[in-house]
Amino acid sequence: MSWEENVRKVTPYVPGEQPKRKDIIKLNTNECPYPPSKKVREALLAANADELRLYPDPDALELRESLAQAYGVKKEQIFVGVGSDDVLAMAFQTFFNSSKPILFPDITYSFYEVWADLFRIPFQIQPLDENFHIRAQDYRKENGGIIFPNPNAPTGVCEPLSLIEEIVRENPDSVVIVDEAYIDFGGMSALPLTEKYDNLLIVQTFSKSRALAGMRIGFAIGNEKLISYLSDVKFSFNSYTMNRLVLTAGKACVEDQDYFKLCTGKIKVTRERVKESLRKLGFSFPDSYGNFLFVTHKEIPAKELFEALKAEGIYVRYFNRPRTDNYLRITVGTDEEMDTLLEFLKNYRNR
Amino acid sequence: MSWEENVRKVTPYVPGEQPKRKDIIKLNTNECPYPPSKKVREALLAANADELRLYPDPDALELRESLAQAYGVKKEQIFVGVGSDDVLAMAFQTFFNSSKPILFPDITYSFYEVWADLFRIPFQIQPLDENFHIRAQDYRKENGGIIFPNPNAPTGVCEPLSLIEEIVRENPDSVVIVDEAYIDFGGMSALPLTEKYDNLLIVQTFSKSRALAGMRIGFAIGNEKLISYLSDVKFSFNSYTMNRLVLTAGKACVEDQDYFKLCTGKIKVTRERVKESLRKLGFSFPDSYGNFLFVTHKEIPAKELFEALKAEGIYVRYFNRPRTDNYLRITVGTDEEMDTLLEFLKNYRNR
Known about the structure:
- Two copies of one chain form a homodimer.
- The first copy, chain A, is α/β, with parallel strands linked by helices.
- Chain A contains ten helices and 13 strands.
- The first copy, chain A, folds into two domains: 111 residues, Aspartate Aminotransferase, domain 1; 218 residues, Type I PLP-dependent aspartate aminotransferase-like (Major domain) (Aspartate Aminotransferase, domain 2).
- In chain A, 36% of the residues lie in helices and 14% in strands.
- A seven-stranded mixed β-sheet of chain A has the order 2-8-7-6-5-3-4, with helices on both faces.
- In chain A, β3, α4 and β4 form a beta-alpha-beta unit.
- In chain A, α2 packs parallel to α7.
């Protein structure tokens, strides 16, 4: 016997590569290709470094107030965390606390399974249909909670609000979490449904549409009771997770809605253009509502293309998992980056 | 039945007040009274805000390398987190994974009990002796892990390395965590013992001696195997907890060892002077090795004094718990702040 017998052993999640090289085209982690709002830089430069000796506001009040205003809800309906991973991990621990299995799709954000294992939450995987869509009837069974991303990752498929409402309505005894990390690129947020259903939690992030992946800010919106349960668990874990500069940057970022609209608008235009070009090159893909495309080619194996792109300094994401092992997830970058990618793909096909 | 039945209900930890008023003397959360190193401000000003669109380095490599160099260990022996609360919470989940109870003192950092409850870890509380010291024999029984702060909080009592070594040596089947949040104010770190014992984990923080409470940085040092288990759990929880500006500020801070020594030196000198003045005013206290004093008065009840100080705009900490409900924890502030405090106490006694 040794101390090692008492150690929790886990299979850690492997995040997308963050290469130190700066000369690559980085289309592998769905970051925003544009810098954050100038207001963020101004707010950070105006921050008083001497005050960093003091703890931050554990309630993150100013940031929550800005978010409440932006989304037309009360500040008591807002929870913030260290990226949406932190928010989701807290939500798993808070709301998925029964012995019944939680339900989520087979093709989805791979962290759900990792958290379920880590927190010893039983789960049952529900296969998407052949077009990567959720079937509402799969979520019509006894469960300890439900979670899915909308738009889904890594497929980009977006479900209509009617389907989400059906699932939420039919599961009044479970909390349903809709992970809307990619909602700002054209999907319809389920936020309005939170007024009608007290078992619906929406989770969003600053890492994609708000160009602040480097600052780590995620948030949840739901009815006040849900949010207060979530806050209680967070406060028993670590009271001060949002540092002073995060609070400063986050607030400035939310308040610049014009830039937010400009950025997400540009990305959508680029995405639609790239869809057309990819189709012409023989690629097919579900119609993505995210800032990425999930593509497969009738002739070129995904893994081969992944390696060829990497050799060229173009990083995309390849998931070697059932049903998706012939797909690549490609982040929508700047127009220039996408043109370089398209040019390479054209030549590769004709090589 | 409703979704609320599946919710984890916890009694949240209540952190020390963070009043919004700026005209108070804040001696309630053991922050450093001096600003962080100027190098921190310079590094933050030099940071490129445009790069905040990109995820931070999940390995926090540069920060870990700076810490490794400062403490003379390998970078593989360093784990970093969002304050020592994050590091400790991860360590509880990683190392206290048996059905046997973990052991910690009755008077100690109140989060230990909160985490044990949250993570459903059984625990057995070991009373300190009448002088608030740990008795090594209390930790000579079957257990699933051991944790204590050294110096202890909120008492300030520091144990000699011989006692720590005895506990670590006698418990080869458990991980022993020494929470050294306050070690830089005069105590002897157990760090050298990590070379000899692979079951010893040291946890420290940037929030006290390094004047960066507002940035949230904590770290652990131990043998490579311990650190790798801890990292695996962290990576399955949230890969990107340390944001770009935290990594920048943390590195600059660690590299300015001169300022660190100057600051902690000044605080120690002030503390010793205040001890003498408090004794003359009829206060008694364990001999503190922290940046705070844990005081009781033979005539004035602690709760009464706490309220009187607060009314005067001087915030200290009062813990209404068994054995410590007639004590106040007073952070060591600047000389000027302590003089104001002492003057008030003198007048209060003579009122």
